[in-house]
Amino acid sequence: MLPALRLATPALRRHHALGGLRLLHLSAARSAGGGAHATFQAATLQKSLTTSPKPLKPKEDLVFGHTFSDHMLAVEWTTRDGWGRPQIKPYGPLQLDPSCSVFHYAFECFEGLKAYRDAAGKIRLFRPEMNMARMNDSASRLYLPQFDGAEAIECIKELLRVDQRWVPDGRGYSLYLRPTLIATENTLGVHRAHSALLYVIASPCGPYFPTGFKAISLYCDETNVRAWPGGVGNRKVGANYAPSIKPQAEAERKGYQQILWTIGEDHELMEVGTMNLFVYWRNEAGERELVTPPLDGTILPGVTRDSILELARSWDEVKVSERKVSMKQVAKASDEGRLLEIFGAGTACVVTPVRRVFYQGRDYDVPLDPANPESQAGPLAARVYETLQAIQYGDKPSKWSVVVD
Ligand SMILES: *Cc1c(COP(=O)(O)O)cnc(C)c1O
Questions:
Q1: Helix, strand, coil proportions of the chain in percent (round to 5)?
Q2: 210 band by pLDDT with thresholds 50, 70 and 90
Q3: Which of 274, 295, 384, 392 to mutate to test the pocket of ligand 1 (most atoms within 8 A of CB)?
Q4: Does 15 fall in a domain?
Q5: What is the pLDDT of residue 32?
Q6: pLDDT tens digits along 260-304
Q7: Keywords in UniProt for this one (predicted)?
Q8: How far does the centroid of ligand 1 lie from the alpha carbon of residue 344, in Å?
Q9: What are phi and psi of 32, to 5 degrees?
Q10: Is the pLDDT of residue 2 over 90?
Q11: Containing domain of residue 275, as a range?
């Protein structure tokens, strides 16, 4: 048994008792570290640039997560001194001891966001403060240090200025950013980490659907559970992902592209692979409803999910709900012709339409666009996709899009 997480500071204890998320992080970090720096400051950023910049790949040849830009952002932290000065330095290997705690107990959390190039050539981020807030929530759950998200965004903007030639242009193209936080302490003891490293790497990538939407099929997994009440399914911690690979491979072997994660006897819907899940249907009361599972601690609070909910509510055309829905109910809706669309949502794809779900021995078909049999996306998924992309690429003005000056 691993020892239970002890909440060492009054601020953290209070914070957990309140069930709140963000408010007390910085004061907790400060009291834990005495006079240590509770956050790093973009104003103190140091740069050492590469003398051998890499050639750019033709953008059509980019494979997701395979190519990395010239530089990375890195900030070190220790309990004694708190955060150090942020550094931009050449992309390259980390040197870590084999005993390093990240290798043994999965002391790791991460984020994923993209930098887009708009029609005027400017670089834009999409709601980056949400990624930073979520990273602090993930860090807090691993008892890793938190930081001021606004300072981190300023540092990321500077990385983007340095590596701006790595942001490809064109709809669908972007520079994927991967903020990562790891414990770096060289000890096998299962306890709080006393040193950590935050780094951000950048990977140019192309459209998720290079030839237009491609609707996917899902395998409803009745054996493996991705997340559970009281677990860490709502945090982007690396430990959530390695155990999903084998179930995913088994689903693929059976001819399905992604896992539909469920929980409980009625198979309550959770997520699709590493995406949030949306069901659009005529519900039991006969209303048109867009529904996604609520943030009850088992669901990753996606930035795309949140954005879709806000957009759909502003359109005010269908009922929008965050509530539990079971696969049993969806299967019944399919049999009764009430199912309209299912799609996954996340930064990588924006939306991924679903055309089929395997559940308890049979396939349930999901309509795409009844008006157009050739279409690979339902009208609602297509509208969400177009609207979010227009905002991300700066074609539609929105407070969500942040320009990197
Ligand atoms: C990252 C992630 C999502 C999507 O989050 P976005 O912020 O929209 O990219 C959904 N589910 C899981 C499990 C994830 O890891």
A1: 25, 30, 45
A2: confident
A3: 274
A4: yes
A5: 45
A6: 999 999 999 999 999 999 999 999 999 999 999 999 999 999 999
A7: Aminotransferase, Transferase
A8: 10
A9: -65, -30
A10: no
A11: 216-392
